[in-house]
């Protein structure tokens, strides 16, 4: 196979084409909601959702990703992969400067990687496959892998691998570095002010390398802790952008109908949040596969989608969301069928043993969903006891495996090797932690498939492996998959071109403009 | 009087230290590990990362050692480092305290002034329509949950009439200064202060009314009346003055707890005070920040209690300070 060169620049031009229909206007201020208040803005050290949303404007990664999760250029203008799929060469964009005026070079990339290994758990896991990173010149970075790693080109978005200025962080105590409070990146917007509890203000980077961008002068991220108050803030015209998840789902239809309001579900393709019920496979009735299957049949997921989530989202078919790579719908199906659920429970010898269920303490919608699921399960004869906790208490119970059923939703990160396998492989069983294999599912065949899938080449081979894994998992029901969640972004229609990539609002506002 | 104050200060410091120790253990009794919460927020919770976080914040040390380090810090006025916000606790509280003081003191002043005024009127015209109207009014506000009053206020004054802003401390991005800024803050303050104040106003109204009616029946009031004093003088000098003592006691208790009680109001109105900081810290098991807010709130209660005792003396000079 000849060297495969991806001309991301051309791809980016292709994607931008539809937007050319209307010429962007410059100037203006966007008021957006951020919830909860981020703990900090130094993306290399803090990776929670709100931090990514604000800091995605300040920092940049080597690549961006299209809604179809194809890599696009950002700080790397092109890249190539060797024939053995073990060497990745990135050509960096020239003329890029940090917000303090210093040039961005390959030395910054090498430093960022070393720093992220210490401060960024996900980056460290992603980089575990890398044998060495070298910089033959100021604008070239070469990654050599220990073995081929299929999702490698998917680990470079700004939240997963933000670039950090070496000249400000090298040799310092990362935790107390003063630039953590006034972050310096290469992004389209610069940090200006943070009034704790009130707002975060970003201003346009006048020296941004993409000429003419960004179009907006300022962004105010307003901190409004109460969901109803966030709805009112939009309704009364005080904010222009409600990123996905800012308001309770039941408010979305009402807000969507307001004058000059546009709604989109786009921009979640990379994360593809998938909601499911952790089922504790270790103990009690749920240790029996038939009981777990009965749960799948007992829950009316269409009702949850249509009523609790107001028609937003999609009923999940298995461990992979339909928006990520190698998804297949060719898996065993579990339609709503209470009679079948009852029959399976009878066959498994379930005699009304108490089953403890933990709803997710993320607000009203989740609470209502917990009640609906409890009702569904009681209808087929299951004895459900709801345990109310807050997030920290719930996490502890789940991490200690002290539960029977628990709600959750997790990101997929675009590839089964990055965001799916961790929940099902035996090596990810670790007491005390959440968001790994807390259900205690252990299947050597699945372990092997996920291990092989990560390193297999070419893509067709990976597809085959992951499709097989999905079929086995859906048959075994280690967890009960519920919905592919959709968090709609609500904006004034005058805000144009806000979401252009697979990470949505988290990718920053560099293409956004106001049609005043 | 000076010796009384200095004795109270010394006792207050001892009580404060006892509160710190008690809170230190109470917080840790709640389920939930801050390292797991932080790791979860980071989207990964592998063992190595959680272990690193525990080590980084000293959470892996034995509890007595953690307590010793914390108390040593508090004694030297160092409230520690916030795990989640990665900033000194004192700095975080310092940024938020002025907003909370502005809100709570305004609410406190509104509630006390209106409460005593309404209570006095109700007692003065006991049994009349005015008394019934004030009593019902007070009962309604006493019974309504603060968050509901807040939401109804927003619906009426922000959404429907567009008179008052629904959230925040000031108009973001307006960059106002001087008098214009003060007016802007005042407009933002009206709804949260009224919301928080209405509940306490109802309490003071009821308390003042009941207390005044009780005092009115006492012998010295009858004597004053028999002496031929004017009714207004009797009400002001004899009845109100004596009836205010239980109200002052209650106000003393409230003044401290108002700060902690501002949590709901601050959350609904996005008011950037320490009530919200405390709420966030609790959910995130940010032990140091939570303890820091508790220390400040406890200190406030102690200070206000001292002030209450001093006000007692002003209201009734017969009360003597115990030496």
UniProtKB/TrEMBL annotation, chain A:
Coiled-coil portions: none
Keyword Signal annotated: yes
Domain Solute-binding protein family, chain residue ranges per copy: 71-422
Signal peptide: 1-21
Any Pfam family hit: SBP_bac_5
Membrane-traversing stretches: none
Keywords associated with the record: Signal
Localization, UniProt: Periplasm
Keyword Calcium belongs to the record: no
CDD domains (alphabetical): PBP2_NikA_DppA_OppA_like_13
Family to which the UniProt record says this protein belongs: Belongs to the bacterial solute-binding protein 5 family.
PANTHER family to which the protein is assigned, alphabetical: D,D-DIPEPTIDE-BINDING PERIPLASMIC PROTEIN DDPA-RELATED, PERIPLASMIC BINDING COMPONENT OF ABC TRANSPORTER
Protein name (database record): ABC transporter substrate-binding protein
Species of origin: Bradyrhizobium xenonodulans
UniProtKB/TrEMBL annotation, chain B:
Residues passing through the membrane, by range: 12-30, 101-122, 134-157, 189-207, 243-269, 289-312
Its membrane topology: Multi-pass membrane protein
Protein location: Cell membrane
Alphabetized SUPFAM superfamilies for the sequence: MetI-like
Residue span, ABC transmembrane type-1 domain: 97-312
A Pfam family hit: BPD_transp_1
Keywords: Cell membrane, Membrane, Transmembrane, Transmembrane helix, Transport
Similarity field: Belongs to the binding-protein-dependent transport system permease family.
Protein name: ABC transporter permease
Species whose genome carries this gene: Bradyrhizobium xenonodulans
Lineage: Bacteria, Pseudomonadati, Pseudomonadota, Alphaproteobacteria, Hyphomicrobiales
């Amino acid at each position: 196979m000849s060297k495969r060169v991806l001309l991301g620049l051309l791809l980016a031009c292709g994607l931008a084409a539809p937007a050319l229909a209307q010429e962007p206007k410059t100037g203006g201020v966007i008021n957006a909601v951020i919830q909860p208040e981020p703990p900090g803005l130094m993306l290399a050290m803090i990776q929670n959702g709100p931090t990514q949303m604000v800091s995605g404007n300040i920092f940049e990664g080597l690549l961006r990703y299209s809604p179809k999760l194809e890599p696009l250029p950002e700080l790397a203008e092109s890249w190539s992969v060797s024939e053995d799929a073990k060497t990745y060469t990135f050509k960096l964009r020239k003329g890029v400067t940090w917000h303090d005026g210093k040039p961005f070079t390959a030395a910054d990339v090498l430093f960022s990687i070393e720093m992220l290994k210490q401060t960024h758990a996900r980056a460290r896991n992603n980089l575990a496959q890398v044998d060495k990173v070298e910089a033959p010149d100021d604008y070239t970075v070469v990654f050599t892998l220990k073995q081929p790693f299929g999702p490698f080109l998917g680990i470079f978005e700004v939240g997963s691998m933000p670039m950090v200025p070496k000249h400000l962080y090298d040799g310092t105590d990362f935790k107390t570095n003063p630039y953590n409070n006034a972050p310096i990146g290469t992004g389209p917007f610069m940090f200006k002010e943070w009034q704790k509890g009130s707002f975060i203000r970003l201003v346009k980077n006048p020296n941004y390398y993409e000429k003419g961008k960004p179009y907006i002068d300022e962004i105010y991220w307003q901190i409004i802790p109460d969901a109803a108050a966030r709805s009112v803030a939009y309704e009364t015209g005080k904010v222009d952008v409600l990123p996905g998840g800012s308001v309770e789902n039941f408010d979305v239809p009402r807000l969507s109908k307001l004058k000059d309001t546009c709604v989109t579900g786009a921009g979640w393709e990379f994360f593809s949040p998938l909601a499911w019920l952790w089922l504790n496979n270790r103990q009690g009735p749920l240790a029996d596969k038939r009981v777990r299957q009965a749960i799948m049949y007992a829950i009316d997921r269409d009702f949850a989608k249509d009523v609790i989530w107001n028609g937003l989202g999609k009923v999940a078919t298995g461990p992979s969301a339909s928006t990520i790579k190698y998804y297949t719908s060719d898996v065993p199906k579990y339609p709503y069928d209470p009679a079948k659920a009852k029959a399976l429970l009878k066959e498994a010898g379930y005699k009304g043993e108490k089953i403890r269920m933990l709803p997710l303490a993320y607000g009203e919608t989740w609470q209502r969903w917990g009640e609906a699921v409890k009702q569904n399960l009681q209808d087929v004869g299951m004895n459900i006891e709801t345990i109310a906790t807050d997030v920290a208490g719930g996490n502890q119970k789940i991490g200690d495996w002290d539960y029977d059923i628990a709600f959750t939703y997790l990101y997929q990160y675009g590839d089964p090797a990055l965001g799916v396998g961790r929940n099902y492989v035996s090596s990810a069983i670790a007491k005390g932690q959440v968001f790994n294999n807390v259900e205690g599912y252990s299947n050597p065949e699945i372990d092997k498939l996920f291990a092989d899938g990560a390193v297999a080449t070419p893509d067709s081979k990976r597809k085959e492996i992951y499709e097989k894994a999905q079929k086995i998992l859906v048959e075994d029901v280690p967890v009960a998959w519920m919905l592919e969640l959709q968090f709609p972004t609500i904006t004034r229609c005058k805000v144009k071109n806000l979401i252009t990539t697979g990470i949505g609002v988290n990718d920053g506002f560099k293409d956004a403009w106001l049609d005043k | 009087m000076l010796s009384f104050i200095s004795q109270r200060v010394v006792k207050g410091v001892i009580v404060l230290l006892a509160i710190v120790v008690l809170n230190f253990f109470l917080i840790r009794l709640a389920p939930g590990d801050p390292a797991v919460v932080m790791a979860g927020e980071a989207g990964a919770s592998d063992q190595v990362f959680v272990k690193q976080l525990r080590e980084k914040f000293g959470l892996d040390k034995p509890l007595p050692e953690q307590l010793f380090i914390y108390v040593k810090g508090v004694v030297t006025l160092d409230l520690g480092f916030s795990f989640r916000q990665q900033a000194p606790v004192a700095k975080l509280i310092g940024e938020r305290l002025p907003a909370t003081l502005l809100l709570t003191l305004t609410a406190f002043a509104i509630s006390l002034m209106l409460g005593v005024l309404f209570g006095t009127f109700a007692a003065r015209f006991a049994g009349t329509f005015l008394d019934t109207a004030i009593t019902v009014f007070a009962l309604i506000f006493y019974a309504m949950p603060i968050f509901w009053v807040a939401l109804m206020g927003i619906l009426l004054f922000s959404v429907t009439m567009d008179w008052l802003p629904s959230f925040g401390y000031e108009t973001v991005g307006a960059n106002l200064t001087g008098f214009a800024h003060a007016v802007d803050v005042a407009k933002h303050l009206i709804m949260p202060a009224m919301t928080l104040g209405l509940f306490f106003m109802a309490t003071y109204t009821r308390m003042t009314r009941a207390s005044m009616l009780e005092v009115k029946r006492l012998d010295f009031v009858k004597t004053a009346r028999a002496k031929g004093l004017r009714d207004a003088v009797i009400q002001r000098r004899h009845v109100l003055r004596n009836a205010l003592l239980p109200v002052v006691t209650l106000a003393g208790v409230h003044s401290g707890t108002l700060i902690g009680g501002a949590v709901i109001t601050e959350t609904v109105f996005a008011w950037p005070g320490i009530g919200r900081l405390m709420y966030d810290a609790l959910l995130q098991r940010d032990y140091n920040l939570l303890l820091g807010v508790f220390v400040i709130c406890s200190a406030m209660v102690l200070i206000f209690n001292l002030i209450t005792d001093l006000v007692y003396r002003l209201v009734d000079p017969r009360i003597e300070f115990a030496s």
